[in-house]
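Objective 1b: paired records.
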Amino acid sequence: MSLLFIAWRNFRYRALSSFLTTLSLTLGVGLVVLVMSVYGIISEAFVRNASVGYNLVVGPKGSTLQLTLNAVYYLSQPIENLPYTEYMEFYPKEKRAEMVRTFGGDPALGERDGVYAGFMTDGYAIPLALGDYFGEFRVVGTTPDFFELLNHGPDADQPFTFEEGRNFEFHNEENSYFECVLGSRVAAQMGMRVGDVMNPTHGDPEGKGHGQGFQIVGVLDPTGTPNDRAAFVNLEGFYLLEGHAKPIPDDAVIVLPESAATAGPDEPLLLTIPEREVTSILVRNGNLMMAPMLQNRIKESVRAEAATPIGEINKLMTMIVGPLMQALLAITLITCVVAAVGVLVAIYNSMNDRKRDIAVMRALGARRGSVTWIILFESLIIALVGGIAGWVLAHLGILAASPLIEARTGVQVGFFSMSTYELYLLPLVIGLSLLAGIVPAASAYRTDVGTNLSA
């Protein structure tokens, strides 16, 4: 009869004690695995979603991390707004003059190239205007270029596609400037589809409604990015909502747009350039090697700040999320140590009841080393059963929560989704349990045969 088989019989003979000891280890291991998995999910969600089609986010002076969280993840409140003229600085004078003719403003704006135009050959700049909500979701005012020029995915090479409908247009006869596209999660949770009307509220989810609604013309396919939980509206319609026009200074030079002379009585007039603001600007310059130069040039301006999304998220993971998760991991590892101590106490407490059995084994020819290995094998069995059961329990929980995790973060997880740290967990648990088994094994080694046989 092998020593391992004898240890297994001892494990089964003390069924209740073995079960409770193994359960405590199972819960400890399961907690550690959950913490590791949560850290992996958070890391993947942030880092993957930082891989976007643009390389700079431009906003008002302030925290670059807050700017990134607001413009990329729609998580933070805007710092402030930038004047629309700051957005115009990314375009050559021909495009700037066209903007003046279309929207109205100071003709001098179209008489020079933008300050950053030299960096933008074959690049693009896409404005964002935030501040409204649709239920709990952010409303993002932008241009059709958002879905035509940007990509998503881990390598930022996947174009946006529509589960239903199409991209919104700058203007059309049917809906004027009031068209919108919903992210997949917004559409599902709010029960909206193409043909419905979306009515945003001002400032926060419980804010005052604007009265003016946007016709839903498209619903995005799931992207696994923050865009799934945003409602995108035509920037021109966003500007026309009540309270969104910036007061015009008394000394402002304004030429009305060319469309003002031909607009019908029911056609809304677009905001002029001095009345416009943007929350942030998504920028991809033509030559990516010149991105640091463009970033430094923007930082030299009085109003604007530029952030690199990937760099800011790496800072967040290194400075905040990483240390927090390490602290949680340390706490859960302490839980494993406590569970290992439980293994020690459970086996050691059973030694008084087993001294006579050990003495009989010794009298029948078992060596001290064999008895010692039987006790260590019992610790090993508890470690293996508890460790494997804890891993399975944690991953069953992850599998059960996978639909919610995917909806919230865009990260797809399954039963076998695991972090690299988990590969070291079972050897660690086995090592701790074997260490815990040394004390009761030493007690078995020192058992006196004559005394315990005569007891």
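Objective 1b, second protein:
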Amino acid sequence: MTTAAPVLLVSDHVAGCVHVLTVPDGTVTGRLTGRHLSEHAGFLALPGGRVACVDDRRGELLVLDPFGEELVERAVPVAVPAEHLACDPAGRRLAVTTGLGKNAEPWSDLLTVVDLATDETARVRTRVGEPGVTVLGGGDPLVVLRHREPGALAAHRFADLLAAPPGCPVVTPHELLPLPDDGHGDAHAPGSGHLFVATGEGVHRARRKDDTLLAEAVIPWAAPARGWYLRLDTRRAALWSTLRGGAPDPLRWPEWTNQAWRHDLETGRTSLTELGPGLVFRLALARSRTAFTRIHPDGDELLLLGDDGIVRRSPLPAMDGAPRRGGTPWEGVQRRAVAASPGSDWVAVTRGGHGEVHIVDARTGHEAARPRLSTPLHHGGHMALRSRADGAEGDLVGR
């Protein structure tokens, strides 16, 4: 499967299939069947164009190399259902937290840590919930869990977790920092050693000092809204989120307001860009644009935001089974996934339920290809777009 072109991994987590496509032509070059990847934990970029992900049915962490001779480079048993996935700056030491899965309440307190260099792995018990996770470098790595209700950042030494005895023992963090109870969204800037957590108050930040965490000033949202998703921009040292405002009632989702939020980590400046009403959530970072999708009963759009602050809007064909007025945007409906690589100007968007992927030139909004896959991509599926040396591995949290 060796190729120099950008590669798109498309996961149909309902059908249990991963499709491998070349970009921009959309040619399917490989398929991995019987693999139900965790859409919530997402894809984690690793050095050399590889990605890590979690098979929620088999209970395995997968390392995929779309540029190698074999797609599956490694499979390591981990606890599931996978909630979040992160690695240290070297891409060697990984942590996987567990969450709800198909359950109404959090029930699992298992955390798995993996050392890809030594093949060592361990499972421990932490705290029931839906914890986020970052793995800080700067010496022996620290695994930092972001807990909710009560909110806290809990720091564990990676070496201590890896040395835990069999039987999934309970572990106690050696450091705790308080957080608001509504944390949702994590990022880690390896250059400065900072970690970031999105809350209703703003973006909380902490810095590693030796084996401790030092809290720093909260970054305000600068708007009467909040972000539920946070990611690091590896291109220009910035944080991105989408601010959602309006009535919290999910039945009123067509009225939700959405703003692109960007905070420059070097200058401390924050910029806001209006995106329009409806459902906007995850974003993707191409070389020269930031991509969002907006779902709305009056029509869906791909939004491409440039450094000039201008949003280029491209209509997307309607989805059968899309969210409707009077219903929620989450339950039993089709959605869209979006993917990009900081090393290319291509963006991919799915059409949930139709098995289609739009491959678009982010500079112009022109659609180059629309491959139709052999599975329907229910719920929109999930994607990762990689070039072999695109620098995406600088974002150390699964997306």
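The radius of gyration is 20 Å. The chain has a mean pLDDT of 96.
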